[in-house]
Amino acid sequence: EAGVTQFPSHSVIEKGQTVTLRCDPISGHDNLYWYRRVMGKEIKFLLHFVKESKQDESGMPNNRFLAERTGGTYSTLKVQPAELEDSGVYFCASSQDLGTGVRGYTFGSGTRLTVV
Amino acid sequence: SQQGEEDPQALSIQEGENATMNCSYKTSINNLQWYRQNSGRGLVHLILIRSNEREKHSGRLRVTLDTSKKSSSLLITASRAADTASYFCATGRRGNNRLAFGKGNQVVVIP
Asked: Could you report the per-residue pLDDT of A35-57, keeping only the tens digit for each?
């Protein structure tokens, strides 16, 4: 099966600009998650979709971040306006169940975002 | 909030040796998972151990879990150069689907 696909793989933008990250989960996976790793820190949960609904968005840092999953397929994460502290690697993951089975979660390769 | 914390954070070993990493966490968990990240790649799920399990094996991997000490260890036996990567532990908690990750261990296996 195809894995979780994220693009772009890298993005360099100026402070104040807008960036949209995209994640295509494994087909049939209802659960989609966004995580991010800011330089030197641990990977942090951002939010969880079940199909098109936001199940848990408690990790979203502020209202400059907007995630959508129209139709319950791919998801986008928009940062507007971007700030320097948003730089990091944004990971997407999907799972068919709740990620607590032997397969865990399947992660994408991540999008490395650099805000200058 | 729960958090996985690996120790040590950097490990350099010779090919063929065993590598051991530890992880501690702070709250009660439902499961603990280990992931590997090769440079520039995504996180790859290695193994999951449930809170009622004490030890689990998968190929050259051996994971232990001590819930009384809130700690886990990952052992990679007979390491290979291809095992060079960052290793993360992540805890899952009953009632939510978030994983809490630690900062990761960088393992370098020297051929």
From this structure: 999 987 889 999 999 999 999 99
Fill in the DSSP letter of residue B17. Answer: S
- Three-point CA angle A25, A90, A101, nearest 5°: 45
Which residues on chain A place their C-beta less than 8 Å from a C-beta of chain B?
Answer: 3-4, 6, 31, 33, 35, 40-45, 48, 55-56, 58-59, 91, 93, 98-110
Rounded to whole angstroms, the Cα distance separating A35 from A110 reads: 9
| Distance separating alpha carbons of residues B35 and A110, to the nearest angstrom | 14
**Alpha-carbon span A41 to A99, nearest angstrom:** 23
Spell out which chain B residues touch chain A, with contact meaning CB-CB distance below 8 angstroms.
3-4, 30-31, 33, 35, 40-45, 48, 50, 88, 90, 92, 96-104
